[in-house]
Protein: 3-phosphoshikimate 1-carboxyvinyltransferase
Amino acid sequence: MIVSLPHAPEGVHGRVVVPGSKSETNRALVMAALGDGPSHISGALASRDSALMIDALRALGVGVDDLGGGRLIVTPGPVTGGATIDCGLAGTVMRFVPPLALLADGPVRFVGDPHASERPMAGLLDGLRQLGAGVDADRLPFTVTPPEQLRGGDVTIDSSASSQFVSGLLLVGARLPGGLTVRHAGDTLPSRPHIAMTTTMLADRGVRARELDERTWRVDEGPVRALDSQVEPDLTNASVFLAAAAVAGGRVSVPGWPATTTQPGALFLDVARRMGCEVETADGVVTLGRGEALRGIDVDLHAASELTPVVAALAAVAEGGTTIRGVGHIRGHETDRIAALATELTRAGIAVEERPDGLRITGGTPSPSVFETYADHRMVHFAALLGLVAAGSSVTDMECVSKTMPDFPDLWSALA
Ligand SMILES: O=C(O)C1=C[C@@H](OP(=O)(O)O)[C@@H](O)[C@H](O)C1
Ligand SMILES: C=C(OP(=O)(O)O)C(=O)O
Structure:
């Protein structure tokens, strides 16, 4: 269904309380499921991806009580086989749950949305096979048959298509006899902060988990301690609201910004400053104002590729050219985001060159458009940003924002 996007000729002004991090919520759930007792999670994201994770864990025998208001109680149990798990389009479900099947007492089947079968899985499934599991395909849908004898040891995988392969294996490592060493054998490795998020959150739960060198991670065998934890706001989603002030003018604040974080979304503040925005942080509140003029930059988003759609929207209205590089692997995200962004920028009359590892965008004045969304929440964010300055724009589907932020339409209308 086509949905109109707000136009903000007077700029945007407001304070946005951003929901919890998808990446932290789904890690906290998996770690709690492996814990040595019940864990409480506060500030948890309520969205399609977290609901899919909760359903997956329940299907494996884990108790999850939703107390409302972002509070969850997770009660671990023996991991049971026999279930079919719906991964939707959630990378964190399709890459973090199959390793739990190593611990199950029977095969576990994994299915997903139509486009989920296009998302890379081979590196992870290769790792599971090296640990003795049977896996009957290299993409969704597939069935994981646990090994007769659970074992840990060393696995070497190509994680260049997604950092989530390394994270998924590390998440289960403490429960494997002898622990687990994961080596990355491919060329490049995206989203390293997300691997640091995995090891840091494991360490918070008493697990000895660390990076040995830039291609090798190690998790020792041991208990995953139950923990009462607080999920940070999702800083990649926060960047969409901050970026609204950069695109339309005005000032936007986001409270609850953590002083230190492993979320790569935090890198948005540096990108925005480089593009000429004024960014202030005081008492955990980040405020962004556009400054004199937005200017194009050359930026490598390898560590924070989730930010590409937002940075592409800024580039579309900036003075001069912007080169986004280092994000070739986002062709395997919810959609081929490089191709999708090139198509939608062209639709809005913005000059763009699609490159193997990114985009070269020449800023201009976006024309009103009906933007395609490709079932991709971040393509809606991109379109919504352009809609602020291209009066009368719309998107072909708004529903897909439920993947990480079901409240996006309300939060956005309140701002614009
Ligand atoms: O581990 C995680 O929570 C994530 C890792 C990244 O995946 P890739 O390494 O596939 O980019 C990121 O883009 C995704 O949104 C979330
Ligand atoms: C790539 C993303 O998600 P996923 O966790 O499904 O990989 C994303 O949210 O930008």
